[in-house]
Structure prediction request, 403 residues.
Amino acid sequence: KIDFLLIGGGLASATAAETLRREGATGSILILSAESTLPYQRPALSKRYLLGDANVQQILIHPAQYYREQQIEVALETTALSVDTARQRVETSTGRQIHYEKLLIATGASPRPIALPGASLPGIHVLRSRDDCDALRQRASKAKRAVVVGGSFHGIEVAMTLRDLGLEVTIVEEDTRLLRHLESAMLSDFFLQYASQQGATVLLDEPVVAFHGERKIREVETGSGARIPCDFAVACMGVRPATQFLHGSGIALEEGQVVVDARLATNAPNVWAAGDVTSFLDPVFSRRRHIEHWDNAVKQGRLAALNMLGRRMRYDQVSYFFCEVGDIGFDVLGAPEDADEWIMRGSLADHSFALFYLKDSVMRAAFSLGRPAGETRLAEGLIRYRTNLQLHKEILRQPDVAL
Ligand code: FAD
Prediction:
């Protein structure tokens, strides 16, 4: 019997394992991973690893030696097939059956299947795993023209990296805006201009309707009937939680996400979940949220581990993520989607800019590009404590006045 069984070989699992040991867990820890590589930093896949600026060792969360020293067993190429929550037992693809005392589900997400004509043609790539990235890199090294389907964070990062690799790139986005989740026409226009300056072609308001080719993809067809020639395409069309193996387990799912309470516990005894796979209660916004970002996976992995050790701590974080579009890095805190007022600080042209999203004079989210770290931390506090900013909006607008 395993004391702490962690299903998923990604960031949330690796962080949970590390936390368990650091906090004094003496029992056995086993990570089950469907992949052939030890847990690694996925964000590098659309950036320096895709560029060829980092090798596998450099993107590992911990080197192999760490797991040995910490006595954390990692079973690679081992997929969990089902969970029996009554018997506290997991069936795996290698035939190994594992009884657990405490279980963490941290299986993340996988690219959503593409339901379009021609989607099975060779040359249509996705980018979630190191294997995906290796395949994409190899393809890119022999190609000239790429189409990136989807102009959100993932798509635009991939597109800019492919430009850096010297490819002709067309981004096709069905929305009227790039990076629509930023909920700002100004920011979308800024990144549209940036992408164009970097030599990418951007088509907005154009859903992809089909892929064409014989033995491999040759063209991407859009809703207006345009056919864009390409040597390959990258589908950055979103992901779905990797929870198919939980159907029938009795573990509550909502839109495929594992439903957890404020302590990241599921409805099944001794089962927790963390990272991209969860639907959790966001205490800052008093509603359920599902977040597919690095920081959330780290913080939830850590908290779930503490609670597996009996701490009974509540998740209490302001959501945060970073993104790198070419040489522009930015951070986003909170939930930009339900603002009724937007306050700008600094200058986008100078790459020193923040956008604060307010609702009823309370900050809900902050976008920050090239601003001091202290300012971002302060914004986090304003969001977390729901500070009423009615009398302080002028200060928010003045980039040289400390907040
Ligand atoms: P994952 O990292 O997806 O790990 C889940 C693991 O579980 C995988 O190894 C998977 O193979 C395995 N698994 C799935 N099912 C099973 C099963 N049944 N049995 C065993 N193993 C299973 N976030 C940011 O904030 N900023 C960024 O700039 C950024 N860039 C990104 C770029 C790319 C290309 C990608 C793919 C993601 C990026 N992210 C970024 C998101 C971030 O990497 C994820 O939020 C984070 O990796 C989630 O961690 P996780 O452990 O929840 O899931």
User: Anything to note?
Assistant: Residues 284 and 317 are 7 Å apart (CA to CA).
